[in-house]
Amino acid sequence: MSSRRPQSRRRLARPLSASVAWIAARATNALRRTIFVATVSIGAFAVALVALVIVPQQARKAAAAITTNALARPDTEHSAALLAQAETRAAMSEAALVAARAEVVTLMTAASAPTAAPDAASGGDTLNPVARSRRDTLAAQAGLLGRLISRSENAPLLASYRALALAGPMQGDARVRQLLDSLIEIERERDSYSAVGGVDPVFVALTARANELGRSIEAVADAKRTAIRREIATLEPGIPVALAAAPRRMLPDTLARVKERRDARIASSSAAAELARERSELIRLDEQEARARELANVGASPQAMLAAALVFGAIFGFGVALLDEVRNPRISNAREAERASGVRVLGVIRPLPPSPERGRRSAERAGPTYIDPGADGHQLIYQAIVTAGVGTVMLTVTSDLPAVSAIVAINFAAIASDEARSTVLIDTDPVAASVMASLRLRPGAGVTELATGTARWGEVTRAAQLGRDRSIDVIPSGEGPLTMGKIATLLNHDVGRLTRQYDAIVLVSALEQVLEGLPSGLPISDVIYCVRTGQTTIATLSAVLSDIEKTGAHCRGIVIWDAPDPILADLRPVEAAERVLVEAS
Question: What CA–CA distance (Å, rounded) separates 424 from 472?
Fold first, then answer.
């Protein structure tokens, strides 16, 4: 038995890889994930198909529905006619009011024009200079108010109303100040809306409110002018007898004219607001129809859009896989594995080529599907482990996939058997039991029963026929759970017996068992770790190798599994395989 190898080793230097080679490795791994790429591509194709074909079809239907449904569009002609009628009525009422006020002025002028009475009060006393000055001042105020009122009535603008409120006779009136403040605030808000442009219902409402405030100012000014005239009448001389005896004409009713004008303006504002609302609705419907037509205006044919969806799905699926590979890179080839871990790659296992040799004999046809000890990858692994002058070979094989480690260990044992070494294959993983599935053997007692003391080595050892004249002893994992401590105790106690009986001892262990220190208790703690291209990440490889070193085991190298994952469940039933082997023997 060879002595235990030293645990320390010099890792290979990690040269800096070129960017092109790194990207090529990531792209290769992305292409290996065919199922993932196909799934994402199908999803992206479905989304693209909906976006390029179904959505434009629905948009065409929506555009046709909007275009043909003309009854839903408001009729602005009727509203425009109502607005024109309201504006005509407002203009007519304004003209009637102006005519009535002119008639009032004419009658009052005619009544005061015939005689120039002496400056005397209504009681017959002559006016003093102070009263005369007061009368002239009041007359000037009344004339100013009359001119401003006429201006606001002829030109109902905010400037006219503001000038009327700021007139001298209107100062000191609290109502006028409140109305003026409200008018200025409305004018400010209306100017902010008018800067935007277009017809807006809020702008029309503000204009109507400003007109109401202006008419209220006019009413206050009219009342103020009436009060001033009453005061002037108390200061002017009495009416001559001849004039008093003259027949009088009835003054026209200006209040009724003012009410008619106010009603006409309210109707005009309401018609303008309704017209603005209908025009806004028309603009919204036009924009909706334009968007629907833009979506429906797809010039490509359905075949072209289908091809575009296929191309987009394929590119998107590959892009997602490549992005995932870049974020979490996986092993691509042997050179990258050595560069990332600093550990030697012992061999690369590739798919088995069809061999006519396996179809000649029934024993070989009935043998395990994944067994090919003549492959270059398995031969290189054996040559790297078994050096010249070594008496006993003791090796532990592990992987992140139990089926891979089982196949590598079985081929290693088959080569050792060809080299005239008595070989035993021990499966210490009771959970996977991948060795029995790979060799197509019926499950039975094994390591679990040995550790519990319910069976002996000779009772659990079974012969596995790997070809016409090649066989190895196999000790299965057994049935039932088993702790790693019991397995280690069993191997440490009986390893001397095994080394005296066998020249090659190959253990197939779970990765958890290796990381818990199972190989470190053996006389030879050699371990090889099997990784899968396109699936085992670089970070996982580095972490596992570091953890194996910490347990005290000696990692001899890495095995690259560059083939599809073995599916042991697809092999033929155990009874059929054993029947063929019996017939061949």
Answer: 6
Strand pairing category for 345-349 and 526-532: unpaired
Q: What pLDDT digit, counting tens, does each position of 81-139 carry?
A: 888 888 888 888 888 888 888 877 777 776 655 444 445 444 444 556 777 777 778 77
State which amino acid sits at residue 389.
G
CB–CB of 337/542 below 8 Å?
no
Torsion of CA 103, 109, 114, 117, to 10 degrees: 150
Q: What is the pLDDT of residue 560?
A: 92
Write out the DSSP string of 22-61.
HHHHHHHHHHH-HHHHHHHHHHHHHHHHIIIIIHHHHHHH
Give the up-direction half-sphere exposure of residue 397: CA atoms within 13 A in the CB hemisphere: 32
Beta bridge partners of 423: 504
Residue 361 counted as domain residue: no
Q: Are 425 and 409 in contact (CB under 8 A)?
A: yes
Report yes or no on 19 lying in a domain: no
Rg of the chain (C-alpha set): 54
pLDDT of residue 278: 84
Dump the DSSP string for 158-218: HHHHHHHHTSGGGTT-HHHHHHHHHHHHHHHHHHHHHTT-S--HHHHHHHHHHHHHHHHHH
Residue 289 belongs to what domain range? Answer: 24-115+240-327
Is residue 145 within 8 A of residue 224, CB to CB? The reply is yes
**What domain count does the chain have?**
3
Question: Which H helix or E strand runs over 109?
Answer: helix 76-112
Which residue, of 222, 238, 254, is where some domain finishes? 238
* Domain final residue, candidates 217, 238, 259: 238
Task: Give the model confidence (pLDDT) of 33-66 as tens digits.
Answer: 888 888 888 888 888 777 766 666 666 666 666 5
